[in-house]
Q: What sequence folds into this?
């Protein structure tokens, strides 16, 4: 199986796509005046990526660089503490949203969740109690504020991405809006410590797929980064373009589109040995629908010769089943996440 990473070649293909390839770079144009024709071009570019790799890099997103920097500073302060202090906000291992601190041999994580508007009061029916663990905030001045500010800005970006998805799927632009009005979205900061010794294996984070709807990831420029598996079995680097976000589909979106769109295996590799003294931070926003949203094949993704391939399930039921399976795998040591 080929294993050498390759990168896409840059060239202009129109107003939206700045770099074509298996993982294209797309300018969303959200930092410019509205232009319906250009937005249609962006939706086509996004849809093309979703049908092939389920991965794209986006710029022109309007998320403030200051908001990103503030969360980076807070996160470095948190992860730079002694293990004993970080453990004061250690997650409950049975929490499916993994709120709090978790540390493994090659990766440390901190996660908190901010529910969408009225998430806990929909017609008097709250989501499954298993989703209602409290956030565990560290006692670091400004940490909670930087976390929630970032969550708010990327939440707006994620909703706009879903609206582009709707256009790409020949749906009304607001088709997904009500499914995410009361979303349950964990925001996870991943910290990859400097490697003081030659690590066992190849990976900082082993090959996997995400299981939500869509992940919006900010990664820094440190070597030893994200790679996505291509159809030949090889691996492509996902370039850390300054100011960009990586967008990738989770398994829920594949199910929602009746397997029309891809959720692709990806991994994080170790840095070259001469760069192993550098640590790395990435920030993952796992956009997940309202727990009570019914996930069934999107109307434009079915037809007489292509009936629904998956049974109906609520977003909450799906998420809990996937997270419990992931928990069992971690406990049994089959995955290092």
A:
């Amino acid at each position: 199986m080929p294993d050498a990473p390759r990168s896409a070649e840059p060239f202009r293909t129109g107003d939206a796509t700045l770099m074509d390839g298996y993982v294209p770079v797309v300018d969303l144009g959200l930092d410019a005046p509205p232009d319906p024709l250009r937005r249609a071009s962006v939706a086509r570019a996004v849809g093309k990526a979703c049908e092939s790799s389920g991965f794209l890099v986006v710029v022109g997103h309007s998320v403030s660089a200051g908001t990103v920097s503030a969360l980076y500073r807070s996160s470095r302060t948190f992860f730079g503490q002694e293990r004993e202090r970080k453990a004061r906000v250690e997650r409950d291992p049975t929490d499916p949203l993994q709120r709090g601190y978790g540390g493994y041999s090659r990766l440390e994580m901190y996660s908190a969740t901010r529910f969408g508007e009225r998430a806990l009061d929909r017609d008097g029916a709250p989501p499954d109690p298993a989703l209602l663990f409290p956030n565990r905030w560290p006692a670091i001045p400004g940490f909670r504020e930087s976390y929630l500010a970032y969550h708010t800005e990327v939440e707006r970006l994620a909703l706009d991405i879903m609206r582009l998805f709707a256009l790409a799927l020949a749906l009304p632009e607001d088709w997904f809006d009500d499914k995410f009005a009361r979303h349950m979205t964990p925001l996870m900061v991943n910290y990859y410590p400097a490697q003081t010794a030659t690590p066992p294996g190849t990976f900082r984070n082993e090959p996997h797929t995400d299981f939500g709807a869509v992940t919006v990831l900010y990664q820094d420029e440190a070597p030893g980064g994200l790679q996505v598996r291509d159809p030949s079995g090889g691996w492509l680097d996902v370039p850390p373009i300054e100011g960009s976000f990586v967008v990738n589909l989770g398994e829920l979106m594949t199910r929602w589109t009746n397997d029309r769109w891809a959720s692709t295996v990806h991994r994080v590799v170790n840095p070259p040995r001469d760069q192993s003294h550098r640590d790395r931070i990435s920030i993952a926003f796992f956009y997940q629908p309202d727990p009570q949203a019914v996930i069934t094949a999107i109307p434009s993704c079915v037809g007489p010769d292509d009936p629904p391939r998956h049974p109906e399930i609520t977003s909450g039921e799906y998420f809990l089943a996937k997270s419990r399976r992931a928990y069992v795998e971690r406990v049994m040591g089959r995955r290092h996440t």
